[in-house]
Structures are given as structure tokens and as C-alpha cells.
Write a structure and sequence with these properties.
The protein is α+β, with helices and mostly antiparallel strands. The chain has six helices and seven strands. Residues 15-61 have low confidence and may be disordered.
Length: 248
């Protein structure tokens, strides 16, 4: 009898590199834990869609007459065309007054997975999903606020690596740590959500607040992370998520 396939080893949580008194953030997981919530829904049998109530619709048997063909999409409208260019140019720019802090530009897969608490699992997961390339940007505002944006792009395969990765991240945000929230939808996205977390307090450290957003657009997974010692406004994470999505 054939042995059952071993379960997929999900990457554990990514550790944000911080400095100073805010190092308590290092105990907080950021991405890639075992999916729950959305992951459970993904494992169910799909519900069949009702038939279209427009039986007369059909692909034209003949090409449209010359001059009546639809206009090709512009570069602005063709999201896939933009995604095949320089991914770094699609990252939100560092805001005025902010200081670069951490990686900026291309990031190697080895460096990316090295920030996870289980790098081996993270590497296996990314390779299984067909990771292609990673662009990242991070900055610091004031003394302690840290923002990081990752664009992780996946190869076209029979699956959808970007969607799987985002579902994993959202499952972690919903089911672990301090969040009991399903998050808030990101405008303009079919599945993107952002999350705000209550303050975390630990003896010997400053208060820690965090916000996260996880969005899939085509073959790209977007992760936005904010850490601060002061409360983070919902409008800040929402605006970052909407503006980053708009660049794709």
C-alpha cells in the first residue's frame, strides 16, 4: 500500500529585526504560520455556481470587422504587464522625513527565509509554491515606528503561490497571537485584509503596537507590517494597503 504523502510543512512566523527597547517585537510572528480560518474554507469542496441566466451569450463565430476590435489594455490597466517589469519600482516610496531601515530593493530567498523562526520550513514552503523573486522596502519614522513592505512574486504553475501565501498569513493573523478579528477588507482587492492588534506589554520593554496587511494581486503577495511603541491609526495601515495595491 502506498504511504500517504507527508503533510506540508508550513513556515513559522517571520521575525522582524528591530533595535533598542522595541526589541520585544522579536517575539511577535509576522507571516507564514499554519493557516486557519481562510485555510479551513479553502479545504472544503467548492460550491457549484448557478448557471448563467443568459443562454444567448456566445463567443462570436467570426472575428469582429476591422475597426470594431476592442482597444488593447493600456500599460496602466494591464496589471500583468506591470508585474513583469522591475518589481522594485512597484514598491511604495519611502515617505518624506522617514529613514531607510533594513533591506531596500531585491532580497534573496535565503535572506528572506532566514528571518523566519523555522527557516528550513519557510524555504521548503516557498520553493513548493514556486517563488520567483522578492522586492522589499523598510523605513523608520521617529525613534521607534518601523514599516516594512514585501512584494513576493510567484511563477505561473498549476496552483497560485501568492494566494496560498496570503491565506497562510491571514490565517495566522486571525487565529494566533492577540487578534480575534477577521480583519478589515482592503478596498480594491478581492481577498486583501488588514489587521490592528491591541497593545502588548512585557516587563522591561516599551509598549508594542502592530498592524499588518496581507493582499494578493495576481501572482504577487503583498505584506505590509507596522510596529510602534504608540497606537497605530487604522487609517495608516488602510492607506498603505490601498496605495500599495494601487501601484500593482
Amino acid at each position: 500500500m502506498t504511504e500517504p504523502a507527508p503533510p506540508v510543512q508550513r513556515p513559522r512566523r517571520r521575525v522582524l529585526r528591530t533595535v533598542g527597547l522595541i526589541t520585544v517585537a522579536a517575539v511577535i510572528g509576522l507571516v507564514g504560520g499554519t493557516a486557519v480560518g481562510y485555510g479551513i474554507q479553502a479545504d472544503r469542496e467548492p460550491t457549484a455556481l448557478p448557471p448563467l441566466n443568459q443562454p444567448g451569450l456566445a463567443h462570436p463565430a467570426k472575428p469582429l470587422p476591422k475597426g470594431q476590435e476592442p482597444e488593447p489594455l493600456s500599460a496602466k490597466e494591464d496589471h500583468q504587464a506591470k508585474a513583469q517589469g522591475d518589481l522594485r519600482k512597484l514598491l511604495l516610496p519611502k515617505p518624506a522625513g522617514a529613514r531607510a531601515d533594513g533591506p531596500d530593493g531585491w532580497e534573496s530567498l535565503s535572506a528572506y527565509v532566514d528571518d523566519f523562526t523555522r527557516p528550513e520550513n519557510a524555504l521548503e514552503f516557498q520553493l513548493d509554491q514556486g517563488v520567483r523573486r522578492i522586492a522589499t522596502r523598510s523605513w523608520r519614522v521617529g525613534e521607534y515606528k518601523r514599516v516594512q513592505i514585501d512584494l513576493v512574486q510567484y511563477r505561473s504553475t498549476s496552483g497560485n503561490g501568492a494566494l496560498e501565501y496570503v491565506k497562510d498569513q491571514q490565517g495566522l493573523a486571525i487565529g494566533e497571537e492577540q487578534s480575534d478579528s477577521l480583519g478589515e477588507p482592503v478596498k480594491g482587492s478581492e481577498n486583501g485584509r488588514y489587521f490592528l492588534y491591541p497593545v502588548e506589554r512585557k516587563a522591561g520593554y516599551m509598549d508594542l503596537y502592530q498592524a499588518r496587511a496581507f493582499i494578493q494581486r495576481g501572482d504577487i503577495a503583498i505584506t505590509i507590517l507596522i510596529f510602534d511603541t504608540e497606537k497605530i491609526a487604522e487609517s495608516e495601515i488602510r492607506s498603505l494597503a490601498e496605495r500599495q495595491l494601487g501601484r500593482l
